[in-house]
Amino acid sequence: MREKTRPLTIRLPERGIEQLRVRAERVSGAPTAIAREIILAGLVDGDAQGQAKRLMQIERRLAALDQQIQSIDTNIDANKATLERLLAMFTRLISELTKAPNRENSDYA
User: Fold this and answer.
1) What three-state secondary structure class fits 79?
2) Whole-prediction pTM value?
């Protein structure tokens, strides 16, 4: 359920309002929505120690993802080599099956 909101009025210099407008245009949003997100993010991420902790968590997650990606890349390379061998075998098989039959070795001659 959404939390009830109440209006809040703030004063900003023209430069700050212009920066909000530019950010809003980049994300196709409204300046008030951008201001709201910035304020809420500041309230949640206020202390430096909390931010550092979250950044460390993000860094650990990125390292884990990097390991998974490397593992997947290794598996892809192994699968590629296997598929290339199968393709070569299949190509040789098709080539042999489409050759004209040799009358000397044919059971039907």
Assistant:
1) helix
2) 0.40
